[in-house]
Design goal:
Elements lengths: L2 H29 L3 H6 L1 E5 L3 H4 L7 H10 L2 H11 L3 E5 L12 H7 L11 H9 L5 E7 L7 H7 L24 H18 L5 E5 L4 H5 L7 H8 L7 E4 L33 E2 L2 E2 L1 E5 L13 H13 L3 E6 L9 H13 L4
Parallel strand pairs: 1-2, 1-9, 2-3, 3-4, 4-5, 8-9
Antiparallel strand pairs: 6-7
Length: 349
């Protein structure tokens, strides 16, 4: 490549990046998908997983269905209403391969029988309990296959172990297929199934584990961030989407396709929210109130979480607080009390 050719190519790339950023800002701030989230200000997140409400890798299909069938959605909805939160996020599943709602596409692709997808559609039942209280429902899903389920990993063609997780953040998880196109196409088909099932019952998605954005998603052709987001919006074009690269400071989006930042953080005192928008995307953070994700007693005082939440909301940002959940589907009372104290201490009631 000649020097002149290289300079022209670099100039074109720079122009493309600038135009893309301009388009992202216009698109996200113009369409205002995130307006309701901004107005809500803060919400609640729960890790409803086999490792939390059941025995994780030792869980049987029968036990998982029994636990999911027994979840008290009305009691859970009443607790969220008591806290004053206007939205909540629940996990569909994670590494164990157990999911809290049916998905025939997942069953067909993986060939797993009996299905590890719950027979009860917990998401639809939660929506029915939350809707009369004007509380929106969002869902969580990893961006990779369940890595403790060898059968699912093989069928979905996902093997992140071939590539050390943090050794090359701009690299990919596999040498031969750094984009994991086969996996991504299958995963998007599975996501579309759920999205079409729920339609407007689900107001947003939070995708975890997007550790290889350059290698896997930042491409002009699909599968990419656009097709990933499109799968999540298959049943609801207004659904919010965020992609999580892990804990990072400062909080930033990975792509213009996001409507809000995933914002996973562990230390709220390190935050510096500058306003509602960060690179054209709604500023949002997610942090746990317990000693770790899904476990432990409250680690902050009421005044601390009130102060941090008010600081971010007053500047136009959004805060989601993660709390533990019990096998019966209810939040432990100390966290309900703390979130109720947050409700009472907000500047914007």
């Amino acid at each position: 490549m000649t020097y002149l050719h290289r300079r022209r190519q670099m100039a074109w790339i720079a122009a493309f990046v600038i135009l893309t950023a301009m388009g992202a800002t216009a698109s996200n701030t113009g369409h205002h998908r995130s307006d309701w989230l901004h107005k809500a200000g803060w919400g609640v997140f729960v890790h409803y997983l086999a490792g939390v409400v059941a025995s994780d890798t030792e869980t049987t299909v029968e036990e998982w269905n029994r636990i999911v069938d027994a979840m008290d959605v009305e009691g859970f909805a009443a607790q969220i209403e008591q806290t004053g939160a206007h939205y909540c996020v629940i996990t569909l599943g994670q590494n164990s391969g157990f999911y809290c709602a049916p998905n025939p596409t997942y069953d067909r692709i993986t060939g797993i029988h009996p299905s590890k997808c719950a027979r009860r559609d917990l998401v639809s039942d939660l929506y029915a309990a939350l809707k009369p209280k004007n509380i929106r429902l969002m869902v969580y899903l990893p961006s990779g296959a369940p890595d403790r389920d060898p059968a699912a990993m093989k069928a979905l063609e996902w093997d992140k172990g071939r590539y050390p997780l943090w050794s090359h953040p701009e690299g990919g998880p596999g040498d031969g297929d750094p984009r994991f196109e086969n996996f991504q196409n299958k995963w998007e088909e599975i996501i579309s199934d759920w999205s079409l099932r729920w339609g407007t019952k689900v107001s947003g998605w939070w995708f975890d584990g997007c550790y290889y954005p350059i290698a896997m998603y930042q491409h002009p052709d699909s599968p990419n961030f656009a097709s990933f987001a499109g799968a999540a919006r298959a049943g609801n074009p207004e659904s919010l989407v965020a992609f999580n690269p892990g804990v990072r400071y400062p909080v930033r989006p990975l792509t213009p396709e996001e409507d809000y930042t995933a914002g996973e953080i562990t230390e709220p005192d390190k935050l510096n929210c500058q306003g509602r928008w960060v690179e054209g995307v709604q500023y949002h953070i997610l942090c746990y109130l317990g000693e770790q994700w899904g476990h432990g007693a409250p680690r902050f005082s009421d005044q601390q979480i009130i102060g941090w939440t008010n600081n971010i909301i007053d500047k136009g940002g959004v805060v989601t607080w993660e709390v533990p959940i019990q096998p019966d589907g209810l939040i432990p009372q100390p966290f309900v009390d703390q979130l109720s104290a947050l409700k009472a201490g907000l500047n914007q009631q």
